Amino acid sequence: QAVPAGSHVRLNLQTGDREAKLPDSENGKGDTGKERRRKRLGKVDVDSNSFTSQELKKALAKMKESEKAERKAHEEEVRKKFRPIDQLKEEFEKLNVKMETDYEIMVKLISKFNSSASTLDEKVAALYDLEYYVHQVDNAKDFLSMGGLQLVIDGLNSTEAALKEHAAFVLGAALSGNPRVQVEAIEGGALQKLLVILATEQPLPVKKKALFALASMLRHFPYAQQQFLKLGGLQVLRSL
């Protein structure tokens, strides 16, 4: 009998006959391709009819609808918490309340500070509010273009300690991290005025604010640092 190709053949040493092992399929023990695949994959369901294409499409559609509903719910929640700026403006107009920009507010504050009709308390209040606005770089640049910076520098010469203190505070806030304002301030004589305050008899709050303004001017500004040394700034600091 012909031996099928690929069969396992052995020699029986007792009888001298050659014996061949028949394939499992011929012994009735063979597995179908599907059964072998099932064995290889274990208990995984490989039935192609488990989910039809229509069922998959429906499932995806439900997922999209669910996401859309969640997004709408989130948008509705945001609308409840916040209102459009146009609506707020309309409501403020009904209440006779006008929304002003930072620029407009600073113009009014500078005008109040520079007005001879303003009292000392009003001028101090104007400087106090200005300090809040000029912290922002863009506002500080606008403050410079309005002429407010020079007014504050001139305020360092005031005979009123409160004005001198708050003028130095506004100056320091405007100078912080703002190279353009630093250049204009040193050209406007701010460095000399600050050193005079620190070198003369002044109330402690005034000197503290002057020191703050001086530090803001010198930070990352080599030219101001050179001028500080030329004007004897180190000796002034040693005497504090």
Automatic annotation (TrEMBL):
One cellular component term (GO) for this entry is:
endoplasmic reticulum lumen
Q: Which PANTHER family match?
A: NUCLEOTIDE EXCHANGE FACTOR SIL1 (PTHR19316:SF35), PROTEIN FOLDING REGULATOR (PTHR19316)
Extract the InterPro entries matched here: ARM-like, ARM-type_fold, Hsp70_NEF-Inhibitors, Nucleotide_exch_fac_Fes1
Show the segment(s) annotated as Disordered: 1-76
Q: Which UniProt keywords apply?
A: Endoplasmic reticulum, Glycoprotein, Protein transport, Signal, Translocation, Transport
What does the UniProt entry say about where the protein is found?
A: Endoplasmic reticulum lumen
Q: Which named protein is this?
A: Nucleotide exchange factor SIL1
Q: Does the keyword Protein transport apply?
A: yes
Q: What role does it play?
A: Required for protein translocation and folding in the endoplasmic reticulum (ER). Functions as a nucleotide exchange factor for the ER lumenal chaperone HSPA5.
Q: Where is the composition biased (Basic and acidic residues)?
A: 16-34, 55-76
GO terms, biological process: protein transport
Q: Which GO terms describe its molecular function?
A: adenyl-nucleotide exchange factor activity
